[in-house]
Amino acid sequence: MSLKSQIDAYLGADGRIAQAVDGYQVRQAQVEMAETVADIIEQDGSLLAEAGTGTGKTFSYLIPALLSGQKVIVSTATKTLQDQLLTKDIPLLMDVCGISGTARVLKGRENYLCPQRLEIAETAEQNTKEVWKKLNLIHDWQLKTRNGDKSELQALDENDPIWSKVCARMEFCQANECSGDDGCFYPGVKQQAQDAQILIVNHHLFCADLALREQGFGEVLPEADIYVFDEAHQLPDIAAQFLGFSVSRYQLDELVRDVRIAYKKEAPEASELADQASAVEDKVRVFNEALGKWEKRWTWEAFEASKASHKTLELLRNQLTQLIEVLKPLTDKGKLLSALYKRTQEFEKQIGSWLTASSENQIRWVESSQARFKLNLTPLSVADPFSRQRDALGGAWIFTSATLSVNHSFDYFAHRLGLGDAETRQWDSPFDYDKQAVIYHPIGLPDPKAPDYIKVCLRAAWPLLQESQGCAFLLFTSHRALQEAKVILSEHWTVPC
Ligand code: SF4
Fold first, then answer.
1. What domain range is 315 assigned to?
2. Which of 186, 189, 258, 338 has most ligand 1 atoms within 8 Å of CB, for mutation?
3. 318 in a domain, yes or no?
């Protein structure tokens, strides 16, 4: 029995979902999309599926994928959709459809605790009382957690800078030096990902994996038979970030800080190491000053024309080379120094590549402001590496979103990812936007960075909140903005929702 012929038994008017879910209504577009995905899975093909809001896309790809019994990777752009898939859609479908299997989320390494870095942070001398409090919190949690995933650690703000000192980010990992009983969480988490039938990741992790494979440095994700990209319209830009690179002042400041820690812990006699850390710190500062204190984006041409910027970046690179020379004979003194040697080499190499890149397919650009800069190298097109990896991995590839086409053509999206051979289908939203929606665009809002921006936005939205008697969905671009709005609304909104 083909996969396609099974769809009606699940999504049809008398199907299993209709029997299990009150108020279920058959949506023709959802059924058609599920049947198309089923065909694509059986052909190991590629599909670009644009389905308007309200089509029920997730069921359309999950049902045939689950029924196939094959290994699936679902990649999304947002955490909200990941949560919806893991806690709602997949359990419901498994339950209703009687399909057994496991689904897991795998996040980037920076989301998991590195017990070794926690230990190092706990031995740092300069910890303040506040830092100690947070380290103790993490330490207590470490004894209870199974996966070391920071999202479980509700007591710590998700943006707290302390996490960057204890997370399992690749550039700080010294796996060779860690023994098996060090309590590292990451291998276990990766194994769970390997064993799951459905693995949910975000586009950032998928693209990081793609970049590693492309550079021949291994992989993070297991291979699958079916790859689904929901919210796929964001994929080309994210892929471009990962197939390029960036070096920021923040990373270089962290390097200096870690060199100082390593000097004290592992080679206190090597005073030239402390001198080198100060020299790099100084060159970083001088380069930042040369870029100026105003927030600015530089093209390569503008950067090249600025003699001071160019010269001071060269000096910074030379200073990193000197640091490498000093670190090299010290690598057998300890794990920290050995890892720093590799990290410094990587930064020096990236800055060198950035200064000398000549490919027409790469754009070099800089973001800068007072005490902050980031050198970026972004490929113009990721079509070649993306299609190369798609060919190498094989299987079925499904890209879906409410917005993939331009004037009913998928050419732009397909061209960006090298998907010229993919089938394309489009389903309109079941909503009647002309009757059910209005667009309201208030004029005269201040700059989003203005201190009273949220207050003014809420004032502009106030008539709508009143009209809907509070039944409104307000979407913010940051948690901070959301919290600010919550405080204002709780002071002024008196109508019960
Ligand atoms: S293997 Fe890497 S991430 Fe795990 S504890 Fe060791 S250093 Fe940390």
1. 254-379
2. 186
3. yes
Give the separation between CA 225 and CA 439, rounded to whole angstroms: 42
Please say if the pLDDT value at position 124 is more than 90: no
Biggest CA–CA distance in the chain, Å, is 78
User: Residue 355's closest CA among 367, 366, 343?
Assistant: 366
Residue of 109, 112, 117 to test ligand 1 pocket, by largest number of atoms within 8 Å of CB = 117
- 288 plus 362 within the same structural domain: yes
DSSP letter for each residue of 134-180? HHHHHHHHHTT-SS-BGGG-TTS-TT-TTHHHHB--GGG--GGG--G
- Report how far ligand 1's centroid is from the alpha carbon of 108 (Å): 14
CB 163 within 8 A of CB 137: no
Q: Which of 356, 379, 402 is the last residue of a domain?
A: 379
- Does ligand 1 come within 6 angstroms of the Cβ of 21? no
- What's the average model confidence in pLDDT over 434-444? 88
Whether residue 168 has its Cβ less than 6 Å from ligand 1? yes
Asked whether residue 408 is assigned to any structural domain, the reply reads no
The average pLDDT across 124-137 equals: 87
pLDDT of residue 336: 87
Q: Which helix (H) or strand (E) holds 46?
A: strand 46-51
Location of structure tokens 């699958």 = 224
Q: How far is the CA of 224 from the centre of ligand 1 (A)?
A: 26
Taking the centre of ligand 1 as the mean of its atom positions, its distance from the CA of residue 38, in whole angstroms, is: 41
Local confidence band at 323 (pLDDT 50, 70, 90 cut-offs): very high
Is the C-beta atom of 30 inside 6 A of ligand 1?
Answer: no
**Any domain includes 146:** no
pLDDT digit string (tens) for 355-405?
Answer: 998 888 889 999 999 889 999 999 888 999 999 999 999 999 999 999 999
Cα 225 off chain centre by: 23
Q: Classify burial at 410, counting beta carbons within 10 Å of its beta carbon; exposed 0-12, middle 13-18, buried 19 or more.
A: buried
Mutate to test the pocket of ligand 1, among 182, 336, 338 (most ligand atoms within 8 A of CB): 182
Residue 290, ligand 1, Cβ within 6 A:
no
Domain count, the chain: 2
Same domain, 278 and 349: yes
Strand boundaries in 209-325, DSSP class E:
226-229, 245-248, 296-299
Are residues 478 and 449 in contact, defined by beta-carbon separation less than 8 angstroms? no
Compute the distance from residue 175 Cα to the ligand 1 centre, in Å.
5
336 lines ligand 1 (CB under 6 A): no
